[in-house]
Design goal:
By secondary structure, this protein is mostly helical. The chain is 75% helix and 0% strand.
Length: 467
């Protein structure tokens, strides 16, 4: 091995090890690895510059600003509130409709604010129906993650794989090119969660629902007693004397207000003009990218600037919506991925992998690649896995003499569709705390879901992206 290969491998192992350890921020770790590679001369300054100015980073930055403008306008919160009113009227089926709508929105907007807004109201509706929120909060997270598989802009992973594939000389993906595969995976996973998912949680759900029923009965008895007391004291009501105060709300009323303040922290009042302009700009960005008028990076960047010029958001709000921790993580990991590719490590790794799976043919290679990517995603961030696996996927396809496109789609899907741990995705962490799940709850639901979506992907990818 050459010095550059040894250095790139050492940095890669160090970055992965620190990320697994989990004591340092992922973006700091990625940037440290990039700095070491630059100092050692493994990558050139122009390659580092290219990573920070890559189309994936520019597109994500613009989309984050547009999504934040939509969130600030109150439009997202209004949509979720209206959907929740439907759920309240028609019961548990309505909650699943809300979850499905959140998944479809996740194909275009960042799914974290979607879950932040939807999770509390779904929990409250479930409790009002005397159902355990555990039945719905984990599926909410998983469905919004699967919604990100529907379009090229659904997740940062998709954009990053697309960007790295372009750097490797492959044609870029169009906005909806991966939609058929993502839809197959989302339908298979969503149906399994609807019919089977909550049953995997077993007694914990039944215990919660029994407790909810008991509390509801106690609340009904309390209200009945209060009503009786009020009727008896109706004619003995007197005005308070001067200097005397009267507390018109009991402890339960104060708690209710506290719940509203807590759960509404992420919601915004609806403002018609900013909502219409934000939605219109977002629609133009989607149409421009879908019809090929301009690359997605240029469209998203122009849309973000337009929102500032139209005074829908201020420059300060735009900066607040950028989410630099994600952008810097991606840029840093792109530098690490570039080092793996330019030093020949990706080609060497693919060669060793080919020696093992060559007898299986292209389909066998696709199955193994999905499994390797899926396993790695449970341990590392999506961006890290995309950077590590994408060069290997291209080299693997070239060595087998087949089109790299199905292997690239495989990486896109497997790097996001990982459900077996509560810490593999930010939305999982949110519902993990809110729903009171255990680590093993995610394992019991997530492992079968991983297998089902794996099978769905292996059926759909060769159909829509032949070898």
């Amino acid at each position: 091995m050459t010095f550059d290969q040894i250095a790139a491998l050492a940095v890669l192992v160090g970055v992965v090890g620190v990320l697994i350890h989990g004591k340092l921020r992922a973006d700091v770790v990625a940037l440290t690895g990039a700095a070491v590679l630059l100092l050692l001369g493994v990558v050139r300054p122009v390659e580092v510059q290219g990573a920070f100015a890559s189309p994936a980073v520019i597109a994500l930055a613009g989309l984050f600003v547009i999504a934040y403008a939509i969130e600030l306008s109150g439009l997202l919160g209004l949509m979720i509130r209206k959907a929740t009113q439907l759920a309240t009227r028609i019961g548990a089926t309505g909650i699943w409709i809300v979850i499905g709508l959140c998944g479809s929105v996740g194909g275009f907007l960042n799914n974290t604010p979607v879950v932040v807004l939807a999770a509390p109201v779904i929990r409250d509706v479930a409790v009002s129906l005397r159902l355990s929120p555990k039945r719905f909060l984990m599926p909410l997270s998983h469905v919004t993650v699967m919604g990100g598989l529907l379009t090229l802009i659904g997740t940062s992973t998709n954009l990053l794989v697309n960007d790295m594939a372009r750097n490797a000389g492959q044609p870029v993906f169009s906005l909806f090119e991966i939609t058929p595969v993502g839809l197959c995976i989302a339908l298979a996973g969503g149906l399994w969660l609807y019919f089977v998912g909550a049953r995997q949680l077993g007694r914990s759900v039944e215990k919660d629902e029994a407790e909810a029923a008991r509390l509801a009965e106690e609340e009904a008895a309390r209200r009945k007693a209060e009503a009786s007391t009020w009727r008896r004291g109706l004619f003995s009501f007197r005005l308070p004397r001067l200097g005397e105060s009267r507390n018109l709300s009991d402890g339960s009323g104060d708690a209710h207000l506290g719940d509203v303040a807590l759960y509404g922290a992420g919601d915004r009042p609806f403002r018609l003009r900013p909502a219409l302009i934000s939605l219109g700009v977002f629609g133009l960005v989607i149409v421009s990218a879908a019809l090929g008028w301009a690359p997605i990076a240029a469209s998203a960047f122009a849309g973000a600037v337009a929102l500032i010029l139209l005074r829908v958001i201020t420059p300060e709000e735009a900066y607040a919506g950028l989410r630099p921790e994600i952008l810097l993580l991606i840029a840093g990991m792109v530098v690490v991925g570039t080092a793996i590719e330019v030093t020949g490590l990706a080609q060497a790794g693919a060669g060793r992998l080919i020696d093992v799976i060559r007898p299986m043919g292209p389909l066998g290679a696709l199955i193994v690649l999905y499994g390797v990517t899926l396993f790695a995603t449970e341990l590392l961030s999506n961006a890290t896995v995309a950077v590590l696996i994408t060069p290997v996927a291209v080299a693997l396809a070239d060595s087998l003499g087949v089109d790299p496109r199905p292997f690239l789609v495989c990486v896109m899907m497997a790097a996001s569709a990982a459900f077996a741990t509560p810490f593999g995705y930010q939305t999982n962490v949110l519902v993990f705390n809110m729903g009171g799940y255990s680590y093993m709850d995610f394992v019991r639901v997530g492992v079968p879901l991983n297998l089902i979506t794996w099978v769905a992907a292996m059926v759909a990818i060769p159909v829509f992206f032949p070898f």
